[in-house]
Amino acid sequence: MHAFCLLLLKFYKTIKKGWKITLIILAVLFLFTSGVYLALQSKGVQTFIARRIADVLAREVNAKIHIGHVDVNFFNKVTLKDVVLEGQSDDTLLIAPEITVEIDSFGLRRRFIAVGQLAFDKIRVFIEKDSMGRPAYQFIIDSLKSRGGEPGQWQASFHNFK
After folding, report:
1. Mapping DSSP to helix (H, G, I), strand (E, B) and coil, where does residue 119 land?
2. Predicted pLDDT of residue 56
3. What is the pLDDT of residues 19-44, one digit of tens each?
4. Could you tell me the residue range of the domain that residue 82 belongs to?
């Protein structure tokens, strides 16, 4: 009987230790997740991330993209403020004081984004032709066409423009 009590006591201590470890792991995960969430709610962090994404996109299409700042709301709505798109010869193609993107779905592993609505507020688009008679924005279309469908490339779908 004494051996059984010692075994039961040892089992109880093991379970108690297991719960402590589990609670510590859960607390660390909660604190980490909360920290990431709070960091992503910071205007500075949001703008930093958006500018890095704009830099990558600008390299892909060989254009200059400037973003003033960014607001992210609940991970599915992004507002870009003071957006300027410049062409290859430093001519302005687009000026938008505000662009709102509502994201329907997003897959980091599958590299996919579905935009439910893309809303432009007071957008100004400058459509000019180059010396060869092509629209000044044609290089963007050509760049996107040549990369479409390649493995590892991001895929995007847009459902509604406003």
Report:
1. strand
2. 80
3. 778 888 888 999 998 888 888 778 88
4. 43-158
